[in-house]
Amino acid sequence: MSNRPNNLPLRILSPAKINLFLRVTGKRPDGYHDLQTVFQFLQLHDIVEIELTEDAVVSRIDQHDFELPEVDLAVRAARLIGQYRKPDNLPGVRITLNKTIPCGAGMGGGSSNAASVLVGLNYLWRLNLDEFALLDIGTQLGADVPIFIKGHACWAEGAGNIFTSCIPPERWHVIWIPDCVVSTRDVFGHPDLNRNDPKITYQDYQQGCCQNTLEPVVRALFKPVDDALSILGQYGKPQLNGSGSSVFLPCESFAEANSIREELPANENIHVSRSMNTFERFVA
Fold first, then answer.
1. Peptide bond before residue 2 is cis, with ω within 30 degrees of 0
2. pLDDT-above-90 percentage for the chain
3. Parallel, antiparallel, or unpaired: how do β-strands 58-62 and 92-98 relate?
4. Catalytic pick from 34, 46, 99, 144?
5. Quick check: is 55 catalytic?
6. How far apart are CA 25 and CA 200, in angstroms?
7. What does the domain layout of the chain look like in residue ranges?
């Protein structure tokens, strides 16, 4: 990083995430739910480019063929961390998003982009904010932002923001994104959702406790998710990713994952991707 020319945009790899399991262990006084999960990252990623400007404006350029809200999480992240900017810093920020992570699929694309902006501007503006400060800012933006700031696979508890680093196996997955948008609020508010899973340990997870408590509710509400899980079930043990809509099937190798992908409907949004416990954040 120290050899990066000052006149070039900072390029940051912004990966998708995968929840290897998810349990709902209670409802909190603040309205959120207590969870247990394991986060990993996927090779499937966006690229976020950041450059400083003199015009005191936070702007965003989209290098993809779908629309995002004018003020998305990346823009909000830049404005929020901008409160820490020093007087001698260039005031403006231009963010270029090169997105391949599908939106609204529960893969954390927007949260990952926001974390990339926070880390990138902390570097470009030389704010020297430590990880705890960045995590606090990230939490203000969304529940999934902090894990992308951590940048390491984690066992997570609380509202999904109490982290313990872990090293689950890195595996190839078939990732299927059904053509529907799942409302996380509706899923967590559904009367049929079990909110009283007994807590488990990481060792319990390693021994096979890896279900997603949200899956029955999401399958009942969203037929495309149910269909995808049913089809993938012919090849193994697929799971809902977070609150969906994406689902994943763990495989033993790229060859196995790619072979399964070739047998699935060609018109569906399906990817083959390897999970990662860490990732190189800054790219050339």
1. no
2. 74
3. parallel
4. 144
5. no
6. 10
7. 10-165, 172-276
Per-residue b/e over 108-146, b at no fewer than 16 CB within 10 Å?
bbbbbbbbbbbbbbbbbbebebeeeebbebbeebbbbbb
Known catalytic membership, residue 99 = no
Q: Tell me which range, 47-61, 84-98, 229-243, is most confidently predicted by mean pLDDT.
A: 229-243
* Model pLDDT for residues 78-115, shown as the tens digit of each residue: 999 999 998 888 788 999 999 999 888 899 999 999 99
| Domain 10-165 of CATH type 3.30.230.10 | yes
Partner residues linked to 20 by β-bridges:
none
Look up residue 55 and give its two tokens: 């015009």
Q: What percent of the chain has pLDDT over 70?
A: 94
Out of 1.20.120.790, 3.30.70.890, 3.40.50.150, 3.40.50.300, the CATH code matching 172-276 is: 3.30.70.890
Q: Which of 17, 34, 46, 99 is catalytic?
A: 17
